Each structure stands twice: as structure tokens, then as C-alpha cells.
Amino acid sequence: MSELTFPQGFLWGGALAANQSEGGYREGGKGLTTVDMIPHGPARMPVKLGLEKRFALREDEYYPSHQAIDFYHRYKEDIALMAEMGFTVFRTSIAWSRLYPNGDELTPNEQGIAFYRSVFEECRKYGIEPLVTLCHFDVPMHLVIEYGSWRNRKMVDFFARYARTCFEAFDGLVKYWLTFNEINILLHSPFSGAGLVFEADENHEQVKYQAAHHELVASALVTRIAHEVNAENQVGCMLAGGNFYPWSSKPEDVWAALEKDRENLFFIDVQARGAYPSYAARVFREKGVTIEMAPEDAEILRNTVDFVSFSYYASRCASAEMNEQNSSAANVVKSLTNPHVPRSDWGWGIDPLGLRITMNMMYDRYQKPLFLVENGLGARDELTADQQINDDYRISYLREHIRAMAQAIEDGVPVIGYTSWGCIDLVAASTGEMSKRYGFVYVDRDDLGGGTLARLRKKSFWWYKKVIASNGRDLD
């Protein structure tokens, strides 16, 4: 096998999200967001799914996002750690409600702009390119309560105003942008994905796909605005990636896997191709969905993204006989458990070859550069007596996935860069836990908010520093 190489200028780094790292949930003029209402504990999943309405905080519950890992106050320390590893890119997100606390104001909160300008200037100080997500699972709660969130067409204009503010305020500091994080997750986790709460007797599919349409129009509109503000801006979409394998060679299972892939890729089909895919008509008809479109929507949707970004943690399995009893509860995207791959502590299949398969499929389908913006292993880390964390399991996971990414590049897939997920331990979006750790940097924080928040370099910190310094050649 020839030596695997990465192109010159390949961007190496890591990723965080505002709602899982910043904390400071009411500081600097910030308004409440959807994630601020999602508790730790048994009520978490019903709230995330939009099945239990949460429009007010409760004193008897713990909300992990309210302090998270306190990136809001510690960002200089954290960015210095990234620079020490040699990052050339840092993916983060802007909390919409820091700039527009209610979401529908006409003018932004200057304190919020000043905070993010300082974050991006700190990145630039170290030669780190910011990669910024505009909406990473946080919608201002006022927009949920007053307008019904993305089920309402008015959200398109609110989001466009917010996005233009970002493009203009941070022009020259940020050139890589993502519109919606894991946009397909709104089908699987509607409240955390898009601020959707269902009323009694509603057709959930109608609500979700109408909201999806509004997000797709908003994404295309702000892609156009980004290019108008600065022609150098590069805008990407973002998919929760991972192909579905057929459970068997039975034709019904193969068809079930194809349908599951289409369900997730539908969003990117629109964002990367500029129009609804032909298969959507039958899907909508069979789900009883009628999309209300404005006359200008078809034209707006033609503003396609410059690149396709995605997360990859695991592949998935689908069968014609899938149901709630035989599907894994480890992730909101349901899957059968694949007996051919090992699983993480949280039941996610570990499948590096699946990454290469996914990347080849996506480039074949879209013919646009890819950017792997989330990849990592959630695991329980143990501190040794001398305060070390020997996370060889994380190194092994990342090593094999980086090798798979290199193979995809060798296959002819153009890739802009790689940002591992949770480069510093943060609150897990799925479970709200701190004990589900992803980072190269340990944060002294437990699942119920205890701990000093002190940062500690793990063994993987030094390993990743070596990977970056060698541009991916030294993975040992």
C-alpha cells in the first residue's frame, strides 16, 4: 500500500458548539434558546423530540447548557490549547440569541458581536481559520413561543437578518460558514433540531417537512447573501452522515436502506443541487405532506452551497422489518445493531471503512468538495493517580478514521479539512452528559455540574499534535 498523504493546505483542527460549550446562558444580553430548556435526566428525550412542551425553566431540574464548560469566560485559554496542538481550523458556532436575544429584533446586541469578534480575533492571532456554524441546534425561545419556530415562514427573514449581521460584522475574520448543523436531525429530534413542538392530532410529518422547507429556503438565501457581502466567503451545508447498510441481501432490505439514505440526503440534495429531488413527490404524497411554497422559492433554492460538510461517527443498518423494539436507542437516528463492527460505550458502531464509503458516495452524488467537520469517540475517561488520561481507545478510533479519510482522498474525493468533534470535553448533545467525553482536553466537570472546570491535556492531545505537524503522515 502506498503512503497515505494529505494535500498541502489541508485544514486540521477540532470542533465545538456554542450551546454545548459556552455557558453564560444569560450573560452579555443573551436570550434563552431551545437548548437552554432541555434538562438532564428522564425528561430530556421527550423534550428533544417535541413531545413535551417546555416554555419555562423548572427549579427542580438541571440544565447542562447553562454553564456547560464555561467557554464564554475561558475561550482564550481554550484557543491557546488548540494553538498548542497546531490547529489550522477551529469549528464553532454563533449562538443566534447572543446577537438577537429574541430573534426578531431589528438591530443586534452589540455585546454579542463583541464577544464573537474577540473569539475570532483570538483564532487569527494563532493562525487558526474559524469555521462558523450559524445555527447549531439553538433557536431563540421567543421565536418558538411567538411564531412556532421553523413551522413559520417568518423565520426565513429573521434568520436572513441574523446571518447578514454575522457576515458583515465578522467580514475579514471568517470566510468558512455553515448554515444549519446536521439539518437532517430535525426529522429525528424536532425540538432540539428545529425548535418544533407538536400539538395534539397534528401530522408530525407535515410539520417537520414544512419546517424543513423553510430552513432550506433560508439556507439558500443566506448563501446568496454571504456571496454578496464577500465573494471570498465559502458556505457549506452540514449533514449528520453515515450510510445505511442493508441488513441482508434480501431486496426488501436493500430498498429499505436506500429509502433511509434518501431520508437523510434529501436536505443535501436540495442544498447542493438547488431543487427538490424527484423522489420527494412520492415521499410527501405517502406521508400526507403538502409543502406550501412561495412563488420565489424555486429561484432562491438555486443558490447552492460551495461545499458539503458532514459529521461521521458510525454507519447504520436498515431492514424492511425495522421497528422500535429492534432498533438501537443509542442515537436519535435509528439503526439495527451491526454484528460485524465493534461498538462504543454508548452503542455506536465503530466503522472506519464506513467513512470512506460515505465520502465516496457523497462526492459521487454532489461533485462538491467535502469537509469532515465532526468525527470522534464518546468514551468514559479515567484519571490515573498522577492525573494522566491514557485514552488509547480514542487515538485508535481517530487514527483509523483519518486513514479512511486519506483513502477517500486517494480515491479522488476532494476534502478541505478535518475537525474532530468535541476537541475539548463538552456537554454531549444526545444525553446531556459530561461523562460522554470526546476531547483531547479533559474538563473537570461531572454530569450534574460539579467540578472545577480545570483543563487537562490527555494522551490524545500529544498524539494529535504530532498528526497535525506531519500533515497526517505520522499516525502512530
UniProtKB/TrEMBL annotation:
Keywords from the named record: Glycosidase, Hydrolase
A GO cellular component term found in this entry reads: cytosol
Q: NCBIfam families, per this entry?
A: PRK09593.1 (NF007158), PRK09852.1 (NF007356)
Q: What class of enzyme is it?
A: hydrolase
Q: Which GO terms describe its biological process?
A: carbohydrate catabolic process
GO molecular function annotations of the record = 6-phospho-beta-glucosidase activity
Q: Which gene encodes it?
A: ascB
- Catalytic activity, EC: 3.2.1.86
User: Is-annotated flag, keyword Hydrolase?
Assistant: yes
InterPro entries for this protein: GH, GH_1_N_CS, Glyco_hydro_1, Glyco_hydro_1_AS
Where does this protein come from, organism-wise?
Duffyella gerundensis
**The protein, known as:** 6-phospho-beta-glucosidase AscB
Show the coiled coil region(s). Answer: none
